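Structure, all two chains, one model.
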Amino acid sequence: MRADARLLAALALAAGALLWAVPFAWMAVASLRPGGAGAADLASLLPSGPFDLANFREAWTSGHFPLWYCNTVLLCGGILAVQCVTISLAGYAFARLRFPGRNLVFTAFLLQLMLVPPILIVPNMRTLISLGLYDTLLGVMLPYFASAFGVFLMRQTFRTIPRDYEEAAVLDGATTLQIIFRVLLPLARPGLVAFAIVSVTAHWNEFLWPLMATSSPSNQVLTVGLASFTAGAEAGSEWGVIAAGTFLVAAPLLAGFVLFQRQFVSSFTFSGIK
Amino acid sequence: MTAGLLLLPSAVFLLAFTYWPVVQVVIGSFAERGFRGATHWGFGNYARLFADPHFGQALWNNALYAAGTIVPSVGLALLFAVGLRDNTRLSAALRTLVALPLLIPLVAAAALFVFIFLPGGGLLDWYLAKLGVASHNWLGDPSLALGSIIAITVWKNTGYYMLFFLAGLAGVPQDVVDAAKIDGANAPQRFFHITLPLLGPTIGFVTVIALLNAITQVDHVIVMTQGGPSDATTLLLYYIYQQAHQNYDLGLASAATVVSVAMLAALSLVSLRTLERGIHHES
């Protein structure tokens, strides 16, 4: 009886997990199905050959994927590069220095975890316009150059490093900046990698803020491009092409997750907040 | 002195894009455009906002959306975590399947679900038809559309929350569980009297994140339904986007933003501690 119940629970669980994979399964099957396949089979999840890459060719040529990839990589890379500097400096200050009002300032920093840029689109767009940075990738990046989560994570990481290293460096006459970038950062690599994964995932997938902050097609990122691309393809009921386009947008991070799963999972659970 | 210089780069961007915008939006919410473009100050935007039935509808929808996404996604996440926590290959593979949606953009999820919800020939109707269920206009029927948007969100976020529960479960001391087993506690008893209470902080943390997501993510609404049909899927942030982007009514958009910032500030007050604890429950 108890064994039966256990088996039943296990089966229900496995069925649930498989159900979770259905949208991905459809994406894979539909994207590989030849373009002219009968409409009745569109929804079928059973892979039935022959397969070809026509949908991917169609998606690649009718969308601007090379441009969107470039812009997205630039966006994620630019944000991450600046964040690494700002969060290391601030993380060090909160981890090692004593100054009046430290806890208060730290709490004020953490407020950014809640007041995320999508909520503040109205005033932030005004700021971009007055800075002359509306419709530029730099403008999309600016609100993310400071990261409360990153500061928090670097503070925690620096705290785990024994002070002996810094003290030795101080005796050798190292400056604060040299201590942070030459001594501590190499030791803090796990924290930085965890942050990089969370940051890149968040900005690769973001939609509303890049949509609002840019207007010309040459500044579109993958998510914004995909949205306009699917709107066009939906009108023509080109579902296989939409599946292929969606795959092109999602594939890099999905591949990263499958290859470096342990690292991704520990980054996400370390984080909680993007 | 040194501390100030080290904090400066972060502080500049936080001031410019987090704190100052809040001040700006509060000021903007009291600025009214009068005749001949003259600005005067008052509660006019708020009066218009609270008189706008679309805004009331957006608040109500957002409350339904929050409850409708948080309860199932947190519950299912807990279920998947407890059921798939063992180290077998099968469990690891199934965990990966549940976690995958967290990696894709919400607009990509929306692109897939547009076809899943397609009336008649779409994935859901096609398979439901085999069970003899009539076809539905999942995104076009006002009584179903919000439920469909909720379904996407649950699909997208459950795996993310599961990861936190898996991390939390790893922290439940095995000897306590074993001791209860020896004392004759059955599996449900062990779960409800030991595991669940010990997971309390994780549940609180995940709920806060889920609530934050319910207030700050509307990408799927923008792509799939544009708030329709007849306002059935208009959420608070979508309402703000609509006022700012389509109606160019910045006064109304500012007043609505103040309402959502106030909600987030209230959430921060009760939960910043929870978040801070949760962020490093791994370390």
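The mean pLDDT of chain A is 89.
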